[in-house]
Amino acid sequence: MVVIIDYNIGNLSSVISALKRVGIDAIISRDKKVIEKAKAIVLPGVGTFPVAMNNLKKYDLIDVLTKQKEAGIPILGICLGMQILFEKGYEVQETPGLGFLKGEVVYMDIDEKVPHMGWNQLHFNQKHPILKYIHENDDVYFVHSFMAKCPDEELVAYSDYGSTNITAIASKDNVIGCQFHPEKSGTVGKKILLAFKEMIEC
User: Fold this and answer.
1) In contact, 80 and 94? CB cutoff 8 Å
2) Domain CATH code at residue 85
3) What is the DSSP string of 68-87?
4) CB 54 within 8 A of CB 154
5) I need a surface site. Which of 27, 30, 69, 144 has the fewest CB within 10 A?
6) Residue 100 structural domain
């Protein structure tokens, strides 16, 4: 069973629908006993970094997420769910993140329009199983005003927004973060979730 973490951040229905379309058996829960039995975890999110972290604390979910990460359970963060995987964020205020990925999340202080909203191409930085079914320059859908700065060794794919490289996919070991929304990215997003399914089944 794949558990989509319910921490009162964003609309989860589109995420569970997208997972089920590729044959992933998923439920939405914040029950720690359910999360402890998960064979994979999806951490979605739409909102602000400090509210997301406060909600994880409020529902006492940080320890169980850390335990599952250390046990090697695959974790997929989407949009804000990706951002809180990093060490800290600077949205509204400096806030510690989960620290599953190295780096920090900063405001997109660039010449282009913010928020970054719409379709952009993916460019690959390294090989990764999550890229199995997609191709260089495939388009995915972004909606965000903050971006992750991560070390090159954890950067899987990026997107060009004007002259700025946006971290699109970051990963370390069993943890994967997607800044874009696979569930809103059509066929390409479906292929990414299918690759995630195969990673779970390995």
Assistant:
1) no
2) 3.40.50.880
3) HHHTT--EEEETHHHHTTSS
4) no
5) 27
6) 2-201
Q: Is 111:150 a contact under the CB 8 Å cutoff?
A: no
pLDDT in tens, the chain (202 residues): 999 999 998 779 999 999 999 999 999 999 999 999 999 999 998 889 999 999 999 999 999 999 999 999 999 999 999 999 999 999 989 999 999 999 999 987 777 777 878 899 999 999 999 999 999 999 999 998 899 999 999 999 999 888 889 999 999 999 999 999 999 999 999 999 999 999 998 5
DSSP code of residue 85: T
CB 79 within 8 A of CB 116: no
Token output for 51: 């509210």
Contact 6, 12 (CB under 8 A): yes
Pairing of strands 175-178, 75-78: parallel
pTM: 0.95
The total domain count for the chain is: 1
The three-point CA angle 16-17-20 to 5° equals 85
Sequence-ordered list of residues with C-beta below 8 angstroms from that of 162, at least 6 positions apart, any chain: 110, 111, 112
* Joined tokens for residue 170: 């970051």
Coarse DSSP helix, strand, coil percentages of the chain, rounded to the nearest 5 percent: 30, 30, 40
SS3 191: helix
